[in-house]
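W.,

You were right to be curious about this one. When I first looked at the sequence I had no strong expectations either way, so I just let the prediction run and decided to look at it fresh. Below is the sequence, 113 residues in total, followed by the output.
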Amino acid sequence: MFMNKRWLSVIATMLATSAAFAAEVPASFDAKNCKAEYPKASLMNEEQGTVTMSFQVSATGDVLESKVDKSSGFKNLDKAAIKAISACKFKPGTKDGKPDTTWTKVDYAWKLD
């Protein structure tokens, strides 16, 4: 009985260690250097809101695919945010400690001053 518990402990430790190495870290970017231009029509209409987007980023930091997860409530703002952030260079995400293609979420807040 004692021997079985000991082996179970070793196996559990090995599984926990493997899970730590299998972790995925999503891509990221410098939001200060990557801003979208406020659409003129949205400025005139005083539109504001936050758009939540997902980006698939390659191991080299380029955006492969993008989509709106939650709209700001205004199509012009959503389109401008997708266009601007898709053009940004991302720091690639990692899988098992190596750069790899990953999905990352970005919230972009449109606010009038």
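Here's what jumped out at me. The helical segments are 2-21, 40-44, 75-86. And, maybe more interesting for your project: The longest helix spans residues 2-21.

Coffee later to discuss?

I.
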